[in-house]
């Protein structure tokens, strides 16, 4: 069933969608014609049918419906209008005096049905597909996000997606198809208009450019891609033109406000000093403390240079930013040439305050301008030959500070509020000659390490960098029908070129560093830390880029015999080359990467009831020695469309669709992250070795050594994939798909233990096919649509995906002495740490009577108590060290991801919301511990609220005893710091109003988060939480559709 809500095909009312008649009869019709208007909807769901055709029977005059399913057409009373839409029964209405028409269309199970794009751009009827393929409507991808991948989570069954950062330009989501089945090279293959693309290319696409979006998951769907399709395939087809008399124009203008979902909170300055004093006393009786006068001065807000109280986070970062996005496209054409042209501008500002203007002459806030252009032209040379040209361009202009935002957040974490001001006044006394009074006197903390003495504001403002990157993707495709040879035969050829180039220029300056020395006669005196003139200028420019070429030739055959035997086949050849323009002295890196492959498919179905499909890929890779360079990857799938059986007819009023399908096949992977693994690598610089017996001294020699040994037997990583699925529909309104999948990935590329250098071969690496991983799970997706009243309709979409993996073999995975350290039997990306014994140490007696903890530091009451793990004999040795770590919690990559939400339409109003969540995932807090080893790290509020102390000897406190420096025993990874990373978000919500050619709407992203983890957005994962936060977005938009 084709639901039109996922399409954006616009129409200016009254425009003809086909060539106007030129006969004399047609002129007389037009002279006496009347205007008829109406709406076309699905009879069951009430959803408007967008882009449906209305044609005057016997003529070529016609129109198409707009995005509300509405139409206007001029016809003579008594003429017949023919209403048609893909997947629906054609309806004819003879017009008369009634000028307002409501046309309800009925789904035609015998019609073409929804066409789903599968491997190498082949369109298949949804009802005839036997592989695991999910088609996503382009409308579902329209969320207020700068990156397309941020719309994936929960909307696509089988796709795991999560966003770790909200930084403009670096805020795309990580995504996987059906979990992870290998150690490296885990990303799915992305195909845009038939050519492999990067995640960056995908993120740059605007949703209005997309015609179809398919996700290929099992071996039948991906086997034709052979070496490239092992981790699943995403296929995107951009829009093409249409044969219309006049151009259809679409414009969208949006303004959106971005603000952090949540940021960690720090305690206040007085709390900080009191806690520091306590930590210092715990560390040493002679520790330097904040005295009462200083604490009182800060508390009373006295001289801010002598008694600083700096809120570093609020000094550097703003609460919200306002951004803009504009999209414009035009679509049209004739019988000979049609076109689709799209232009998009997206402007994003960062959270940084523009403080550099307070000190220097430049603004270095994050500012990203992205321009994308897409031009698709089809030239129909004849009734059997077509040339298509697609050109996509992305221009990205970036501006920002000379240091990374991660460094700035780290600086805020490592800067406490009281040790120094942002800067000292210009007229302050300096205890040395040469004041350089024309430069800012930045305050820092004197920890004895000049390089580590940093000022967050000085770091933010000391410089800026400008970047410009351009991506050009150009495709030319030729299609030729060969019906003169045999009906249904077609030839196609595709050539593609992509070029990416990037230039980054960084300009910055050092800065003077000052610390408070003393106050004398009411005058504050400071001293320079190091050279007082550290404001040297610096500049750096880097250029990088790459280019790729792709060639493809294919024969397709599609034919039906005796109305029941449907046969289709494909034979295809492709080759590609990738060149990098990076400046490098690495000989291997400068060599172009090349691949070559053959693919074939044969499918058959009988009367749309019994289906079979065979696919194969035969691919070559340069990464293997002769005799191993070619891999063969076949697959077989079978399907039974039960609902098409004659005996099932009485049940179709309840179960309108029931299909069973299953597949098995092989997929391959040749990408290990290291090229030419079968060849040895020799280090000509050599490595020292010595000879002699020591009595007469040692003799040292240098010479060439192997840093990697050859392995000519290394070969393909192969996945054995099984898939079983059932598709069923109820009451012509609910469609459900359930699938189970299982993959065993064998011969995974792994680096074995390095050979010890006492063997005389310089600890060389050895690569081989040592790994094996099992990955399995299941998926459910549901779509519901119903017309509740004449004016009210509702739709609902839900997905649930579960994927779990297990390491079966690994070169270094088994530990015979400590089985709990073995990776065998563990999932990928599972966390490791010490097991918390359930309480902090209460007193010295408990410490004395417990296993000796040798993780680091002196153990005292209030420290974390751990469990001593048994060895292979089941015996605990009484010592807790690195051998006592275990795997704990769930993997960092969620095993469960789900989403659900309804949409409503009432007259001209529409409203929708969507929830998305993850489960079976854990995060490890780290890097946030107070005070630390450098410059007195700040204190997060949750620590100040509940930490162990003599006044609060709670053995279950949220934080152990305070220490002046990082205490290895308490900062080590353990389940004391392990947290549940599950969450449920109100991911998107939107309300809109449509009137004629205009739609206005308000939408939002990341509006609410429900989670047991409260310190920062759990989607960002573990660590300290002090990195660029994910963003809550409120979006105002207007969409116009006009001539």
UniProtKB/TrEMBL annotation:
SUPFAM superfamilies attached to this UniProt entry: Carboxypeptidase regulatory domain-like, Porins
Keyword Transmembrane listed: no
Keywords, ordered alphabetically: Receptor
Domain annotation TonB-dependent receptor plug: ranges: 126-233
Annotated NCBIfam families: OMP_RagA_SusC, SusC_RagA_signa
Official protein name in the record: TonB-dependent receptor plug domain protein
